[in-house]
Amino acid sequence: MRLSALPLALLAVCAFVPIPASAQSVDDLVAKHVAARGGLTALRAITSTTATGKMRVPGFDAVLAYKAYAARPGSARIEVSIQGLTAIQAYDGTTGWQIQPFQGRKDPEKVGADDAKSLEEAADFEDALVDYRAKGNVVDYLGTEDVDGAPAYALRAKLKNGDEQIYYLDPDAMLTIRIVTKQVVRGAESQNVADYGDYEKVAGVWFPFEISTGPKGSSARTLITLDTLTANAPVPASLFAFPQGH
Q1: Distance of alpha carbon 195 from its chain centroid, rounded?
Q2: Beta strands at 48-56 and 105-111: parallel, antiparallel or unpaired
Q3: Which helix (H) or strand (E) holds 33?
Q4: Closest residue by Cα to residue 204 from 86, 42, 60, 94
Q5: Would you say residue 139 lies in a domain?
Q6: Residue 31 included in any domain
Q7: Mean pLDDT, to the nearest integer, of 57-69?
Q8: What is the CATH number of the domain that holds 205?
Q9: Average pLDDT of every residue of the chain
Q10: Is the pLDDT of residue 129 over 80?
Q11: Which of 82, 85, 90, 187 has a 20 to 30 A CA-CA distance from 62?
Q12: SS3 for 139-174, per residue?
């Protein structure tokens, strides 16, 4: 399944046809979104994900190898490799850490709570809308907003960790096409935009296989393209834990 652009003629018509906001509620929209992802039963049946692919960074000509792991109840690990060097960022549900050889730091080092927030969010492969009350999130419906010339439902999720994410849902597919994340790191506010596409079904659940990210207002974008995504493969807890002896 690919969320492709609408034909121009149809897009022009859609621009003047508002999506009915009456009778829409947060729970209505979240329920439709959960059903579109594959349903709560299928989502909860996934205990881990392992993804491989490629990463293209703005201003850098070479293509980097990308690998990401996530596991319940809240662990994540991201690896980016090139020419024998591998950068790692990981979170074990409590502690975040990293190895940054491209910056000359080859030993693992722990990161602060603010820096670990993005990894904590990456560990939630369901997304912040699914079971949002149980996760301690607060979700508001902001109405419809324009995303690249087409209307989308906008849902703001205030996360338990203090970050704020605005989810933009395709009104037909009810899948996420954009998330704008606002967070405060060491006293400074930042906003990041992530666009999602090229959805494929894995273990009964739709996952995006293309993710484009960058600071809000910037044309510089990092592109992640997945080749594979596997659900429920064994992932040892040691993969997320801070390496012993450091």
Answers
A1: 9
A2: unpaired
A3: helix 26-37
A4: 42
A5: yes
A6: yes
A7: 93
A8: 2.50.20.10
A9: 89
A10: yes
A11: 90
A12: EEEEEEEEECCEEEEEEEEECCCCCEEEEEECCCCC
Longest Cα pair distance anywhere in the chain, in angstroms? Answer: 62
Task: Tell me which residue of 243, 234, 244 sits closest to 71, measured CA to CA.
Answer: 234
Residue 13 exposed, middle or buried by CB count within 10 Å (0-12, 13-18, 19+) = exposed
Q: Is residue 135 part of a domain?
A: yes
The answer to whether position 2 is within a domain reads no
Q: Are 64 and 82 in contact (CB under 8 A)?
A: yes
Cα–Cα dist 157/141, whole Å:
9
pLDDT band for 91, please (50, 70, 90 cuts): very high
Q: How many domains does one find in the chain?
A: 1
Question: Is the pTM above the cut of 0.90?
Answer: no
Domain of residue 104, residue span: 23-239
Place of tokens 């989308």: 152
